[in-house]
Structure formats: structure tokens, C-alpha cells
Amino acid sequence: MTRLAQTAGLNDVQREILSTVRDFVDKEIIPVATQLEHRDEYPTEIVEGLKELGLFGLMIPEEYGGLGESLLTYALCVEEIARGWMSVSGIINTHFIVAYMLKQHGTQEQKDTFLPRMALGEVRGAFSMSEPALGSDVSAITSKGVRDGDEYVLNGQKMWLTNGGTSTLVAVLCRSDEGHLEGTAPHKSMTTFLVEKEAGFGEVRPGLTIPGKIDKMGYKGVDTTELIMDDLRIPANRVLGGTTGRGFYQMMDGVEVGRVNVAARGCGVAQRAFELGVSYAQQRHTFGKPIAQHQAIQFKLAEMATKVEAAHAMMVNAARKKDSGERNDLEAGMAKYLASEYCKEVVEDAFRIHGGYGFSKEYEIERLYREAPMLLIGEGTAEIQKMIIGRRLLEEYRFQG
Q1: What is the pTM of this model?
Q2: Fewer beta carbons within 10 angstroms: which end of the chain, N or C?
Q3: Please, are residues 241 and 106 in contact by the beta-carbon 8 Å criterion?
Q4: Residue 69 a catalytic site member
């Protein structure tokens, strides 16, 4: 596909990066994605290839060994990677949220310690907000960090940790009441802790356990885990930014990047579904002609292509708004909501075009059909996005009576 989802105003460097990533996706990801996904196998060779391309340092400033590119460039790369296999885009997404949070909020010592190694992919990031009982209600977290001399002692159970096994640095959101008066709003008594660990499962450092991979309907290959802290001790200098009580704001800043990423993933998966659908429709014959010549199928293709274009445009707008330094929670929420919903619909239409063959594991669309639902949930459900959008609209359009 070359006509859909084009982005105006890119410079030569951005176009070269995207061309390189697209070639890598076509040659190294698409041919093996379905096979690896069916085995739920971590894509080690693909990840090593991304490291060689420098993609783990794409948004990390040049002074720390990264490429210093924009969120827009990153989002467009994610779109291409998700077009090949969404799980691979998930591997770099959580890494970049942590790198972004370090760049924006970390102390100079924290930046100097982690960012150069993150740019090389030697340190791999993951972040953790959710817990088994709270879902989207971040303010209800129960994990705690308590000061004990020059250390903090962390206790609690976290859930839905992408890269939980393969990561070596996890940004963990905990409640920390130190220095905060009783009755303080919950979001003002949260702190982000930078937890270093070994890659793998089981007890990965004293007091920290990664039990194993959660078996999922889709989004396979990438490891999704729990994280259990039992008197986990970390140095006080591993509080992100050096000050407690700022964790909620730091995480929400990172989640805005994550929502642009999820929107980009939705765009990529939808593009691939359209490619598969339009190709199959021209090969499959019924009633003496390709099904693409039947008006009913042409209507589906028209709707699918329009949704791909609309989602891409909103994703690009949200990324550019964030790059400008402006608040983009409205645009990111809209982009994430629309792109994930449209992705589900485009994938289902491509599935319908395939007919009975879409139900066969031999066809790629079967994998996409299981992957798309994760985007409806990741980085906040559609209902959460609508709540954010509605509140922001009321701020912008306040009635003057």
C-alpha cells in the first residue's frame, strides 16, 4: 500500500527513517509474525534488528546517544511496525514511555545513568500502574512505598505489566504518604519508583517476583506479567525526579505518549487489515468474477479505507500537538478512541471479506482479529477516553451564563 495514510510535511530524515522501518517490516517481520504469534514466542531476532536500526533510542536525545527524534516520527514508526506485528510495537512502546518519563522528569543523575543504555537497548523499560482490583481507577492503588533511612521499602501487587519479564528497568507507581498531610487527594500522594531488576521470571531481585507470562487471547509473543513486591528495598535516589508525590502527574504525562502509541498501533493494524482485504477481494472469485467487483465488497473497501485515513490523521494531529509542547490529552484521547474503534471495525470487515478462510489460522487476518481487541483496552478503555474528552470539552466550551 502506498496511497493511504500518507503524512504531509515530513523532512528528509523522517522519510528515510520510515522507509528503512517499512523495508524491515516487509522483510523481517511480516514473513514470520504469524508463525511466532501462534507459538507465543518472543521475537528475539526482530528485537535485535530494531536495536541495530537504533529504534530503541529513537526519541532519546542525541546527548545521551539517541536519535533525538520527535513523537511524530516515533508514532509513524510504530504504525509501520504494528502493520507487521502489533506485539513488536508493544515491546518498544513501554520502553519509550519510561525513557520519555526519565527525559521529562528524571534527575540529571537518573538521566545520565539510564538513558545512554536505554538508547542502545541494553536497558529495557517497562512501566506499571495497574493492579488486580482497580482497573482504570488509578487513584485506588494500594501498593505502598515507605521511607526507611536511605531506602524505600515497596510492597504490593501490580498487574498487566508489558515487558515484565524482558525488561530490566520498571517505573512503578506506588502510594507514598511521606510528607503529605492526612486527607491529601490520592493523586497527590503517589510516587514513581525506578526499579532495576534482572530479565527473566521468578525472583528477579530480593523482594521482587515476576510470576510468569499471562496467557492471552492475542497480543502474544510480548510478555505480559504480574509484578509482586514483598519488602522490596530500593535506594532513595530511585524516586523519579527525586521528589515524592509527583508520580501520578509523571505517569499521566507518559500515558499521553502511550495513547498516541496505541492510536498508531490501531492505524497500523487497520492498514494491514485493509491490505489483506483488498488483495483477497481481487483474487477470490464468485458468480464468475472477482468479489472486488461486487458492489457490496466495494462499499466495505470504501468504508475501510476512509476509516484508515481518518484514524491516521487524528493520530498525526495528536503527536504533533504533543511535540509542540502543548497539552494534548484531548487530542490523544480522541485519537486513541477513534483509532482503536476503527481498527476493530476495519479488521472485522477484512475478516468478513475473507469469508470462511478468515476463520483459518493459515490466514493472517485470523491473527489480526484476535489482536485488535487489546487496543480497545490498552492505555485506557473507550469509556475512559470519552470521560477525558468530555471533561476537556467542558473546559474549552464553558457556558458563560
Answers
A1: 0.93
A2: C
A3: yes
A4: no
